[in-house]
Amino acid sequence: MKPLLEVKNLSVDFKNDQGYVRPVENISFQVNPGETVCIVGESGSGKSVTSMSIMRLLDYENGSISEGQILFQGEDLARKSKEEMRKIRGNDISIIFQEPMTALNPVFTIGKQLTEAILLHQDKSKNEAWIRAKELLELVGINDIDVRMKQYPHELSGGMRQRVMIAIALSCDPKLLIADEPTTALDVTIEAQILNLLNELKEKINMSIIFITHDMGVAAEISDRIVVMYAGKVVEEGDVFQIFDEPTHPYTRGLLNSIPSEEGPRQEKLTSIKGTIPSINNMPGGCRFNPRCEYATSQCIEKEPQLYKENGRQVACWNYKEVIKKESMAQ
Ligand SMILES: Nc1ncnc2c1ncn2[C@@H]1O[C@H](COP(=O)(O)OP(=O)(O)OP(=O)(O)O)[C@@H](O)[C@H]1O
Ligand SMILES: [Mg+2]
To answer: Which residues line the pocket of ligand 1, CB cutoff 6 A?
Structure first.
């Protein structure tokens, strides 16, 4: 199967007051048609910067793609003009964010915003767009559609607003939906409903999803494959079963250990890996995870790990074989 999206050796630079920083360095992963790929990692690991570079929305900040390719259906998005990208964003790739209230316009009704989005991308009359808008609301599981169409964003609950955002994102029939922590601001029950909805939609309309989260529990619910990022690098990638049954990177293990238990309080941020993610201005040499890693050896401090590829998965750890051996003995 040909991948829908292939990110190849992507690096991103930002200009800040201390010169240039590189929040994403030399990352590669792919998304196949109909597949949900989760990008997981702690705050600051470069997940949003990665998604913003795929959408080429960095251009509107002070960031730029310095190296690599973003092949979407074989064409390199990194080399598209602003105008070409605007078309791709309106037709093939959509994005939803954490807080739908900031993306919805408070002074227009849901119906108006949805029909506007449809009219922007599709050659339809106002009447046809209104009908399509109602179909989309139905698709995302909203009831009392005629009432909802006439309401303003503040009249809806957070979960419902996120459903409306998903409906708007689907209005162009995207082949790829990028969802950047779309459920982080919601409570657990509503989060579960939105995850179910995305799983259903994926089946119904055969789109691919890149789902960004810092929560491995959420990744387990929704992903076919998982890309683990740490401090701007991909440290591990594999299908969901490989990652959960046999995580090979010590960081992935740490993330899995920090999944909150069903009964326990919900954690806002991951806490159980000792230490914190390094500052972007001061990355450690060798493996960027070495200061926090219980398996670190002198090699990890001196040399950046090689990327090992095996059985459709990749891991960037000098000692991954040791990690597997020790952990399987511990069990
Ligand atoms: N516009 C910007 N200018 C300079 N640095 C930025 C900019 N946007 C992000 N960064 C830096 O890039 C790094 C990665 O940020 P990013 O937002 O991708 O993290 P993230 O993994 O999405 O985290 P979170 O889980 O908190 O959303 C951070 O160190 C951040 O400070
Ligand atoms: Mg983010």
So the answer is: 14, 16, 23, 41, 43-49, 61-63, 214, 280
